[in-house]
C-alpha cells in the first residue's frame, strides 16, 4: 500500500486554557508553557506540513488565544499556504485581535459551545462568565462575515438542548454545526457516568440531526459524531490511523490522533528532532496500525475493514487493553460484552455526581 500524504494537521499550540471542560481532549499529562515550541519552531512545522501536502491547519489548544504570538502564528501558516482554522472557546479573543487575525490570513473560526445558556455552559466549562464572553465574540465574528463553524460538544447533560443548539447556530450565522458527541478518552473517561448519553438521547440525537439536515439544506451544513457505545459498528477514527491527519502537541511531539499517548507501547517522536515527513512516512508509531495488514480477525476477514478500519485504536486500548484489537464497540468484537457491561454499569452510576474538571496547565 502506498501511504498518501496527510490532508489536515491539528496544532495544539498550548495546553493553557481558561476553561476546564470535563471532556477536554488534551492528554491527562498537560504540558506547561515552558515546554511549548517557540513561534519560529511552529512556523517551521507549518512550512514542513505544507511541503508534505497538508492543506488544512487547525490551530487548537488548550485555548490557542492563550498564545500571545497567535497573530504571528496565523501569519506564518498563511504564508506557508495553509487554510487556517482557529479552534477556540472565544475567551481571550477581542474585536481588535480578531481584526489582526483576519488581516493575518485566518480563514475560518470554529467556536466551541458548552451549552445554550450561561448557567449550563459555565458549569460545564468550569469558567464563570465564559458563555457571555463567547456570545460577544460570536457577534463580532458574525459582523465580520468570517466563516464560522459552531462546535457543540454534546453529552448527557446538554443533549436535551439540541433543538436550541441548532437554532443558536443559525442565529449566529454559522455555516456549519458540528454535533460532536463526547468520545471517551482521557478526561472524558474520568466523567463517563455524567457524560454518557442515555439510549433515548442517542436515538433522539440521530433523528434530530437527520431532520435538521434536511430542513436547513443550503443554510447550514452538519457534521455529526454519534455516541458510538450504542452503535453496532465503530467509527473510522481519524479516517484510519496515519492516513489523513496528524496532531502536533505543544512540545512538538507528533501523534496520529489526540489520544494516541494512551497507548503505552508506542513511542512518539518530536518534530524538533526528526522531520515531519520522516515521522509521517517512516516512524514505527505511524506505521503501527496503518492500512489493514495489522488487523486481527474478525476485522481481517470483514467486508467493512476498509470502511471503519477496525474502529478506534485508542478505544480498543481503553476497553480491551490492546490497541491492536478490534474496537470493542463492534458487535463482531470478542470484547463487545465489555461495552454491554459498561453501559449497564453506567446506567446504574450517578449521572448527577460532580465533574472531575480538567486541571489548569502551568
Ligand atoms: Fe469494522 Fe472490524 Fe467490526 Fe468489521 S469486524 S465492522 S472491520 S471493527
Ligand atoms: Fe486514537 Fe481513535 S482516538 S485512534
Mean pLDDT: 95
Strand content: 5-15%
- Helical run tally: 13
Largest sheet: 9 strands, mixed
Helix content: 25-40%
Task: Write out the strand line-up for the largest beta sheet, numbering strands in chain order.
Answer: 7-6-5-4-3-2-1-8-9
Decide which structural class fits the backbone: alpha/beta
First CA to last CA: what distance? 43 Å
Query: H/E order of the elements?
Result: EHEHEHEHHEHEHHHEEEHHHH
Multimeric organization: single chain
The best one-word shape is globular
Radius of gyration in whole Å, from Cα?
20 Å
- Residue stretches low in confidence (pLDDT < 50, at least 5 long) are none
Bound molecules: iron/sulfur cluster, FE2/S2 (inorganic) cluster
Number of strands: 9
Amino acid at each position: 500500500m502506498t501511504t498518501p500524504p496527510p490532508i489536515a494537521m491539528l496544532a495544539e499550540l498550548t495546553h493553557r486554557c481558561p476553561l476546564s471542560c470535563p471532556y477536554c481532549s488534551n492528554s491527562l499529562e498537560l504540558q506547561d508553557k515552558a515546554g511549548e515550541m517557540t513561534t519560529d519552531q511552529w512556523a517551521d512545522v507549518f512550512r514542513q506540513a505544507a511541503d508534505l501536502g497538508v492543506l488544512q491547519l487547525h490551530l487548537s489548544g488548550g485555548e490557542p488565544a492563550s498564545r500571545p504570538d497567535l497573530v504571528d502564528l496565523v501569519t506564518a501558516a498563511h504564508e506557508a499556504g495553509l487554510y487556517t482554522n482557529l479552534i477556540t472557546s472565544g475567551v481571550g479573543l477581542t474585536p481588535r485581535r480578531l481584526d489582526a487575525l483576519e488581516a493575518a490570513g485566518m480563514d475560518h473560526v470554529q467556536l466551541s459551545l458548552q451549552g445554550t445558556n450561561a448557567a449550563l455552559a459555565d458549569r460545564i466549562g468550569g469558567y464563570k462568565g465564559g458563555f457571555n464572553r463567547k456570545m460577544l465574540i460570536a457577534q463580532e465574528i458574525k459582523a465580520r462575515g468570517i466563516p464560522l463553524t459552531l462546535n457543540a460538544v454534546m453529552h448527557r447533560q446538554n443533549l436535551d438542548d439540541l433543538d436550541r443548539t441548532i437554532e443558536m447556530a443559525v442565529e449566529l450565522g454559522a455555516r456549519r454545526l458540528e454535533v460532536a458527541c463526547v468520545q471517551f478518552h482521557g478526561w472524558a473517561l474520568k466523567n463517563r457516568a455524567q457524560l454518557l448519553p442515555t439510549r433515548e438521547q442517542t436515538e433522539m440525537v440521530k433523528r434530530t440531526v437527520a431532520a435538521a439536515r434536511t430542513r436547513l439544506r443550503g443554510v447550514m451544513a452538519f457534521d455529526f459524531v454519534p455516541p458510538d457505545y450504542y452503535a453496532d459498528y465503530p467509527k473510522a477514527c481519524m479516517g484510519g490511523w496515519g492516513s489523513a491527519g496528524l496532531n502536533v502537541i505543544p512540545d512538538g511531539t507528533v501523534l496520529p490522533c489526540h489520544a494516541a499517548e494512551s497507548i503505552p507501547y508506542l513511542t512518539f517522536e518530536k518534530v524538533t528532532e526528526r522531520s515531519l515527513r520522516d515521522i509521517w512516512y517512516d516512524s514505527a508509531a505511524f506505521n503501527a496500525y496503518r492500512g489493514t495488514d495489522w488487523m486481527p480477525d474478525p476485522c481481517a476477514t470483514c467486508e467493512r475493514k476498509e470502511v471503519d478500519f477496525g474502529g478506534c485504536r485508542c478505544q480498543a486500548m481503553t476497553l480491551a487493553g490492546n490497541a491492536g484489537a478490534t474496537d470493542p464497540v463492534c458487535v463482531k468484537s470478542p470484547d463487545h460484552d465489555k461495552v454491554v457491561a459498561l453501559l449497564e454499569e453506567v446506567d446504574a452510576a450517578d449521572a448527577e455526581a460532580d465533574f472531575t474538571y480538567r486541571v489548569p496547565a502551568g
